[in-house]
Structures
1.
Amino acid sequence: MPQLTQTISPSQAYDASKKLILAVTPERKSQALSIPELATAGFLSAVPTTLVTAPVERAKVLLQVQGQAGSGTQYTGVTDVLKHLYKEGGIRSIFRGTGATLARDGPGSAAYFAAYEVTKKFLTPAGASPSDLNLQAVILAGGTAGVAMWAIAIPPDVLKSRIQSAAAGTYSGILDCARKTIAQDGVAALWKGFGPAMARAFPANAATFLGVEASRKVLDGLF
């Protein structure tokens, strides 16, 4: 997942979303969620985290592009960026690009968690539980989840970064940004950074899920 400090972790939001789906479908015959339900839980998990990550994403993008084209250093850190944005346009300026962030994280999280669960189920021997998978299987499932997420998240991520780094009024929304980006730079511009993202996706997310599963096993043993 996009790497940010959050008060609600993606895995916590995902677990809460799965419980929500079970709660609103009390007549179900099985407690096991289907693939569409897992994807829905993944999408829903992105909603609360986006409220936290969107302002930080905006600040991160501005920090990354400062100094380009001889603009010089304008900000000293995330807090400084947010202070400048608030003075410039209030809360609305701070949260610019939130819709684009959700357009990236919603479908991305749906693919992320669904791919992880499906891969774990595929790798689980008959009669065994996915929670008992070995280290290699968890690494493969986590890496597959990361690849699945970034395979569809790159275009909205590109648009999000353009919206958040552009001057106010440049784009009216994510569709307007997509139209102008394609008209100016071609469709290939939507996939800028695809190679590096894919190279990072497998090992980074394999490590993430390995840590999550290891922590759960430790906590289960303690409590």
2.
Amino acid sequence: MHFMNPPPIMKLVEIVQGADTSDEMFNVNKALAERFGKTVLCSQDYSGFIVNQILMPMINEAFFTLFTGIATKEDIDTGMKLGTNHPMGPLQLADFIGLDVCFSIMKVLHAGLGDSKYAPCPLLVQYVDAGRLGRKRGIGVYDYSKPSPRL
């Protein structure tokens, strides 16, 4: 079972059905997740499952967009909020997830899928190496130690 963070708030659980996962065990996990009030998705045992297979490359591309100077962090996040109707932009979301977590997932995707498109953006690596891990540290892409304008 793969709970989205933070589990008490997020309504989604991905259940991974591996090659040796019995239908009985899958159904037990599904029933448990539903008892928790979660919506259940079934994923094959593949790097990133469903959500991270899509979400993390999007976040990584947002870092590349910032890294190459195409746009500011504010414009990247505002563009994705207003242009795709997401509740927050990808860079702000990365800060909420934790930049170290995003970096770790990108490394798993890169190693597991063997495609260079999953290589973590150098700016993401730089931020993690500098201890800029996001909201939990008070600084990531954004600085949370002082009030900032709404994105």
3.
Amino acid sequence: MSKPNYSGTFHLVEQENMDAYLEALDINFALRKIVCLLKPSKEIVHDPDTGAMKIRTLTTFRNFNMDFMIGEEFTEDLGPVDGRTCQTTVSWEGDKLICVQRGEKEGRGWTHWLEDDKLHLEMRVQGIVAKQLFKKAD
């Protein structure tokens, strides 16, 4: 069975527990408050045949780019997020994309999955879980 194509532009519609997640990443209070007010968009370019994926998280404050091959470990620069680097692997678990980020923070990673025109994102670090829900642009 073929994997879903994640390509598209998605806009945030709701989020939960972001402040606690950012605090677990040692983000200072003022920056946490700014980030929690942002309404990010995600631009995803995905080639299901090769496994190449580019995820751009765009906000009015700061942007974050992630380019990778599904199933291959790479060094991820999380400088724009929390100043760290980690060894990251994104792989398939059924139709979900599971990211494991090995570094200073235990249990760090995320899961993406599609449901109709919605893109779900669950972010984890040190037992804290934050969730974001995005809707695909028309």
